Amino acid sequence: MREVLGYARFIVLFFVLSICLMVPRAFASSPPPPITYIDQWYIQWLDEASQEPVLADVMDQEHSDRWILAAGNDRLTAKPEGFNSAWIKIEVPELNWENPGIMLDVNFAQQIRIFNDGYLIYEDERNYGYETNNILLKLSPHYYNKPIYIYLKGNADASSLGIDGSVKLGDFQSMNSKYLQKNILDIILGGTLVFVSISLLICMLFVNKIYWPGWNSLCLLMLSIGVMTLTISPYLYAFFGKSSRVYYYLFDISSTFIMTWIFLFFEQIISKGTSRILKYCLRVQLVISIGSFAWLLLSVLLGGRVLHYYESIVPLIFASSVMIGNIILISVLAFYCVKRNRESIIISAGFALFALTVVSELGIYFTHKDYEMFYWKWGTLFFLFSLIVVLIRRIINNYEQMLLYSRKLEVFNNELQRSEKMEIISQLAASVAHEVRNPLQVTRGFLQLIGHRSADQKDKNYMLLAIDELDRASSIITDFLTFAKPQVEMTTILNIAEELGQIEAILSPLATIQGGELRVESNFELYVRGNSSKFKQAIINIVKNSIEALPTKGSIDIIAYQEDSTVIIRISDNGVGMEESELERLGEPYFSNKSKGTGLGLMVTFRIIEVMNGRIYFNSIKGVGTEAFVSLPIAEIQ
Q1: Rounded Cα distance, 185 and 233, in Å
Q2: What pLDDT is attached to residue 445?
Q3: Residue 453 CB partners (closer than 8 Å, separation 6+)
Q4: Are strands 516-521 and 554-563 parallel, antiparallel or unpaired?
Q5: Three-state SS at 171
Q6: pLDDT tens for residues 75-97?
Q7: Are 131 and 108 in contact (CB under 8 A)?
Q8: Cβ partners under 8 Å of residue 448, min gap 6
Q9: What pLDDT is stored for residue 168 in this prediction?
Q10: What residues contact 3, with CB distance under 8 A and at least 6 apart?
């Protein structure tokens, strides 16, 4: 359990570190040099039938009316029907920086070539679905006042093609720092989630499997979200472009399984395996995820139409499963929230933000194809944090439950040991008591006879002392016999008020002698089944102990009342009280706080009440007093 609590602290620590790393340290850097923004350029569309033109031909058409003025505040330029590629011409002003650079965002282009003064300075070609290009290039200061030509070839299904926003000119090092800051959030967030999830999955191999449910699905969910966050960032494609196809497929695989892990978590934690709806949805989602993954493998191996169908159909299936799955999960959460399930309420807070951002951005994405999804990353943080809180609460509850079970187990073991001791004493008493009592009675008789015949008073005193000790031994043997065979053939319906009244009459003088007061309060409608003499013996033993524990002035209260189908007899005093260690040993043979006590009286009392199908328990505070509770099943009067 301590290891699991350690893992929980490990997760929270990494989330705190990741959030701290996300905060930019503006005070640590000097103000960046001014940046020149270019908000206008020219674009020339090329139809699908025309061949790819040569740069020289385009440069010869510098003053052609085929060039159309485009503005950066229009975001992306709408692509005319029948046109799938274009040339863009950007007029570069004088470069006033030692290391000039240019930064631009090109979207929905699968092929990009950038020329400066007739030289190719950048080229990228992608034949997969990731079409976001954040480009940062270093320019030669000798090429200012010369236009930059950009050739773009887009996806036939895209409605736009071109530069997104303004083109920025400035110091290369300064813009490079800004470029890194822009994408570092995705790297930190995604890297943290991947590292934490993999670390926890490895740690789970060394933890008992009973702790796996919930943590396994959470780790897999964190891993999927982390991989998605990493692979959707332009940072990897810009600096590690050789593996760009791998990033694209990793994003597809992670997004395919994300809903499966969410359903698995809900099925393990919220419903605990009892919800048929979640089980059915989990199976359906698992089939969709495995099917999409298999289709992806085939498309990678075969390509062509298989890949085209994959890129056209699987995103629709994924989006539909996300929307339908979110509706189902929200309904399940609402159902459990109505039942005041705290875990559901906690998850609802995080999941509501996550589902709202995902569904909203998917809706915007399919309404406006040019939309770039971003805010879902923040929704995942709230959602994951709520899941972690639920699991930590469950760990704490399990730990508290384990402590409770440990205490109960300790009590059970003590009762078991006590029962075994009582059984041994019972067998010994039954077999030996009669054989010992007979010689004692004979010895007592001869001592009485010798005492009567003796003329010496000193000898008579010795004889009386010996007889008293024999009587004491006989009393102990009687207690052993009562403990060994407390069952009596004659049991009747006992009126508790009458029995307690007789006990009050017997023990009130003794209490008065000790300087105490005995008070009895009972309802005449309380009845139990048992033997009157044995019942009185048990209660008298308890009350006598209370009387002997009284200070100079004290009181003993005996109250009988009904609780459900049980009669409770409460015997309380304001005596010296007992420690917790002394309470645990009550009823053990030969344990007594009295100088001449044997502990057999309470042992017999426990045995008598046990035979009457009742139980006794004590509460005591040292120096305050003691309470004894005797509970017996109520008897019905026919």
Answers
A1: 9
A2: 79
A3: none
A4: parallel
A5: strand
A6: 556 777 777 888 888 888 877 77
A7: yes
A8: 463, 467
A9: 86
A10: 203, 206, 207
Q: Cβ(185)–Cβ(22) under 8 Å?
A: yes
Is the pTM of the predicted complex or chain greater than 0.90?
no
- Cβ–Cβ < 8 Å for 329, 355: yes
The answer to whether 98 and 173 are in contact (CB under 8 A) is: no
Measure Cα distances from 429 to 476, 480, 486 in Å: 10, 5, 12
Q: Look up residue 635 and give its two tokens.
A: 């008897």
Alpha carbon distance 539, 535 (integer Å): 6
294, two tokens: 């298999």
Q: What is the pLDDT of residue 27?
A: 38
Instruction: Mark out the alpha helices in 303-375 (DSSP H runs).
Output: 304-338, 342-367
- For 550, 592, 618, the CA distances from 602, given in Å and listed in that order, are 18, 9, 12
What's the rounded Cα separation, in Å, for the pair 374 and 185?
A: 11
* Whether the Cβ atoms of residue 398 and residue 269 lie closer than 8 Å to each other: no
For residue 549 the two structure tokens come to: 């524990």
What b/e string do you get for 2-14 counting C-beta neighbours within 10 Å, with b at 16 or more? eebeebbeebeeb
Helices (H) and strands (E) in the chain, counts: 15, 17
The DSSP secondary-structure symbol of 80 reads P
Q: What domains sit in the chain, N to C, each tagged with a CATH number?
A: 2-25+183-390 (no CATH), 35-179 (2.60.40.2380), 408-484 (1.10.287), 492-633 (3.30.565.10)
- Give the distance from CA 393 to its chain's centroid: 5
Residues with Cβ < 8 Å from 364, sequence gap 6 or more?
371
Residue 247's H or E segment, with its range, is helix 244-265
CB atoms < 10 A from the CB of 120, how many? 12
Phi–psi pair at 624, nearest 5 degrees: -110, -50
CB atoms within 10 A of CB 203: 16
CB 57 within 8 A of CB 90: no
Amino acid letter for position 204: M
Which residue bears the tokens 């290391």?
A: 99
Query: What pLDDT, on the 0 to 100 scale, is given for residue 24?
Result: 44
Q: Which residues of 545-584 are buried (b: 16+ CB within 10 A; e: fewer)?
A: bbbbbbeeebbbbbebeeeeeebbbbbbbbbbbbeeeeeb
Query: Which tokens hold the place of 138?
Result: 């270093």
Instruction: Name the 3-class secondary structure at 169.
Output: strand
Q: Where are the alpha helices (DSSP H) in 339-487?
A: 342-367, 376-453, 457-484
Longest dimension (CA), the chain: 155
Tokens describing residue 356 = 């709202």
Task: Indicate the angle between helix axes 376-453 and 2-22, nearest 10 degrees.
Answer: 150
Q: What angle do CA 102, 246, 303 make, to 5 degrees?
A: 110
Q: Which residue has the tokens 């270019």?
A: 38
Phi, psi values for residue 149, rounded to 5° = -105, 135
pLDDT recorded at residue 560? 92
Give the full edge-to-edge strand order of the sheet including 132-138.
Answer: 36-38, 162-171, 100-107, 132-138
What is the token pair recorded at 421?
């001791």
The sign of the torsion formed by the CA atoms of 385, 391, 397, 400 equals: negative
Q: Which residue has the tokens 């019905």?
A: 636
Q: How far is 537 from 605, CA to CA, in rounded Å?
A: 7
Hey, CA dihedral for 111, 116, 118, 122, is it positive or negative? negative
| β-sheet bridge partners, residue 558 | 520, 571
Distances (CA, A) of 60 to 53, 57, 69, 153, 601: 11, 5, 18, 21, 119
Low-confidence spans in the chain with pLDDT less than 50: 1, 3-5, 7, 10, 19, 21-30, 32
